[in-house]
Design brief:
By secondary structure, the protein is α/β, with parallel strands linked by helices. It has a single domain, classed as Hypothetical Protein Ychn, Chain: A (3-Layer(aba) Sandwich). About 35% of the residues lie in helices and about 20% in strands. The protein has four helices and five strands, in the order E-H-E-H-E-H-E-H-E. A five-stranded parallel β-sheet has the order 4-3-2-1-5, sandwiched between helices. Helix 1 packs parallel to helix 2. The protein starts with a strand and ends with a strand.
Length: about 120
C-alpha cells in the first residue's frame, strides 16, 4: 500500500490560489493511489460546504469545482475541524459527500502507526 498523504489547509476562498495549490497536491496524491486526507481548519472549513469552492483562482489554473470532484473520485477525504466549523456558525450545513466533521484525534487515528507524507497550506 502506498504511503498516506495528509494535506492541512487553513485558508479558504480569501486566497483561492493557495486553495488551488493545496488541492492540486491532494489530487496528485489521491490519483496516484495514496490514501489521502485533507484536514480543513480555520476558514478552510467552508470549502467542505457545497457551492463554496467555486471559480478559477488564476489564468491557467483549473476550476476549483473540477479539483474537488477529481479529489472525490480518487477517494480523497476531507476531515473538517468541528471547532472551526461551529465557530463560523456553519452548524446544520450540508457537507460534501467525502467530508466529515472530525478533529485531531480522528486525524491521528486515520494516520495510524505507519508513515505519512504531510503538507501544510
Amino acid at each position: 500500500m502506498a504511503e498516506k498523504a495528509v494535506v492541512s489547509l487553513t485558508t479558504g476562498m480569501e486566497d483561492p490560489e493557495k486553495v488551488t495549490v493545496a488541492f492540486l497536491v491532494a489530487v496528485g496524491a489521491a490519483e496516484q493511489g495514496r490514501p489521502t486526507l485533507m484536514f480543513l481548519t480555520k476558514e478552510a472549513v467552508r470549502l467542505a460546504v457545497p457551492g463554496v469552492a467555486v471559480g478559477v483562482a488564476c489564468e491557467g489554473c483549473p476550476p476549483l469545482p473540477d479539483l474537488l470532484e477529481r479529489y472525490r473520485k480518487a477517494g480523497g477525504r476531507l476531515l473538517v475541524c468541528p471547532i472551526c466549523f461551529n465557530a463560523r456558525q456553519l452548524q446544520g450545513s450540508t457537507l460534501l459527500d467525502n467530508a466529515e466533521l472530525g478533529g485531531t484525534i480522528p486525524m491521528w487515528e486515520w494516520i495510524g502507526d505507519g508513515p505519512a507524507t504531510t503538507f501544510s497550506y
